[in-house]
Amino acid sequence: MSHRILLAIDGSETSWQALRETIRFAMPDDVVRVVNVIDDPFAHYQSAFSSYIDLEAVREALIAESQATLSNAYKRLHEEGIQTDTRSIDLRTWGGTIAGAIIREARRWQTDLLVLGTHGRKGVRRMLLGSVAEQVLRHSHRPVMLVKESTTLPTGAASVPTAVPEN
Fold it and tell me: What pLDDT shows up at residue 24?
């Protein structure tokens, strides 16, 4: 029986670790949908920043980075023989939060399992920055696998190309 695995990535090392874990446990008939959410960080502050920053150029860079991240992930999964598709989710169109967009896509695609990396922040950093992974875990009605960044890979673990596009 095949499973639908939703892998949410953001280009960070923890998301590449989540991809490696997905490669490690995905079965031949499973389908992996890789999603990347394009945040619109200036949506609420456009008038304050618009005279100092070309917000559309920032947005275009975020979109290009999203496409490159999804392309790298697709290539890596495809090389491993895993059925894969990708989806870029733009919060300017979808609205809401990153976690909310991941949960909605999981529900819409009828995901059997969500996989995402977690930075494992604690204390004040967690309070100030929040945790997308924690929000997904708390609000999803589907199984969630959180993958913590690892400094060493287990023996036999797959690796992801280290050449992640930079802007």
Answer: 96
Cα–Cα distance measured from residue 50 to residue 62, given in angstroms and rounded to the nearest whole number: 17
User: Helix or strand or coil: residue 33?
Assistant: strand
The span from the CA of 120 to the CA of 31, in Å, is: 27
Asked whether 20 and 43 are in contact (CB, 8 A), the reply is no
Query: CA 90, CA 109: separation in Å to the nearest integer?
Result: 16
> What was the pLDDT predicted at 164?
38
Element (H, E) at 104: helix 98-108
Which secondary structure element, helix H or strand E, spans residue 34, and what is its range? strand 31-38
- pLDDT, average across residues 150-165: 46
Confidence of residue 71 (pLDDT cuts 50, 70, 90): very high
How far lies 149's CA from each of 13, 15, 29, 84, 126, in Å? Answer: 7, 8, 27, 23, 16
Residue 13 pLDDT greater than 80, yes or no: yes
Question: What tokens were used for 41?
Answer: 């960080």
Reported as type and span, the H/E element at residue 137 is helix 132-139
Distance, CA of 83 to CA of 28 (rounded, Å): 8
- All structural domains of the chain, each given as residue ranges with its CATH number in brackets, are 4-147 (3.40.50.620)
